[in-house]
Amino acid sequence: MLSPRAAVRNVPAYHPPLAGRNGLRLDFNENTVGCSPRVFERLRRLTAEDLTRYPEREPVETQVANFLEIPPAELLLTNGVDEAIHLLCQTYLDPGDEALIVVPTYSMYRIYMTAAGAQVADIPTKHNFEFPADALRNRITRSTRLIAIANPNNPTGTIAPSEDLLQIARAAPNAAVLIDEAYFEFSGQTLLPRRRELANLFIARTFSKAYGLAGLRVGALIGDPAQMRCVRRIGSPYNVNAVALACLPEALADQTYVQQYVGEIRHSRARLEHALASTGIQFWPSRANFVLARVGDTATAAGFVEQMRSRGILVRDRSSDPGCQGCVRITLGPKEHTDRLLAALHETLTQLGAVGASRT
């Protein structure tokens, strides 16, 4: 009888709760207002011929590389950051190899690592979700072949110092070290200028968050040219669709739009953190476009999510993540969305017993 590989049978299931997402979507860290109008204008100009031809990725890769001020040989456009993670796993992991992740973190690291047959080791964060640099560095062995670090981290929003990340990459010369900078625009911290110090260092970026292109699925993987040639060998030449390739240059060209949105999100983040602090709700200062808050125990978190949904606001229960019992993750939007969020937050916390929630 046909049977999948044992590694595939052991892959943890991931079922994002995407169905029935009616209301203000503050549950998946998406851009809440949409992409640049220039993207829509480019969509209107698409022709039937654009859709009948296989997509040509390299010219757009050159444009993205020029935008990032790096050589095109160091960059590969991918079908979202998820494909970048998958390609690294397929390039560097053999069955039985070791892969390291800091938990809690993005679920797809474990899924792709496990599917490749790797043994995944979890390194818990320190108190208040601080980055466990020493523990991670001490866990590296000769079998370690891949380390994935989200920076800022998801779901916590915390950030690791650049020097700690570089020291980890130096301590693991036989391992690919991925620094996933999906939320870079909101944090402003990047290892991109220092990427050439270590040939085993990879950086991932996405255009799903600040650029509002989550539905087009386009990201970028950046690394040493010799290593990137190996990664390219196992990827499809047509991995990024023609619509995404047509729209991405327009999104990049409208930096005024992106920077305005990022500025609004940072202001909204400060407003939400102030409101949480005013009510005594525990939260972790974030460098991303979301905030993680502990609203009570696991049952309380589930009730909080449902009460917010009843008020037209979707937020994400993260109680199943290590160390996140009773926690919810709340994505930020611009001022008008934050006004709605804080009004619903005030009502919900009052109903749950946290009377006097701030609506600043």
**Overall helicity:** 40-55%
Q: Output the number of helix runs.
A: 14
- CATH class category label of the largest domain: Alpha Beta
* Regions with little confidence, pLDDT below 50 for 5+ residues: 355-360
Architecture of the largest domain, according to CATH? 3-Layer(aba) Sandwich
Distance between the termini: 62 Å
Mean pLDDT metric: 95
Secondary-structure element order, as H and E? HEHHHEHEHEHEHEHEEHHHEEHEEEH
Task: Find the CATH superfamily of the largest domain.
Answer: Type I PLP-dependent aspartate aminotransferase-like (Major domain)
Largest sheet composition:
7 strands, mixed
Structural category is alpha/beta
Count the domains: 2
Describe the protein's architecture and organization.
This protein is of the alpha/beta class and 360 residues long. The protein has helices at residues 6-9, 37-44, 48-52, 58-68, 80-92, 107-115, 133-139, 162-171, 184-187, 225-233, 242-253, 255-279, 298-310, 335-352, and strands at residues 24-25, 75-78, 98-103, 119-124, 144-150, 176-180, 201-206, 219-222, 282-284, 290-294, 313-314, 316-317, 327-331. Strand 5, helix 8 and strand 6 form a beta-alpha-beta unit. The protein is globular and about 55 Å long. The termini are far apart. Residues 355-360 have low confidence and may be disordered.
In short:
The protein has 360 residues and is an alpha/beta fold.
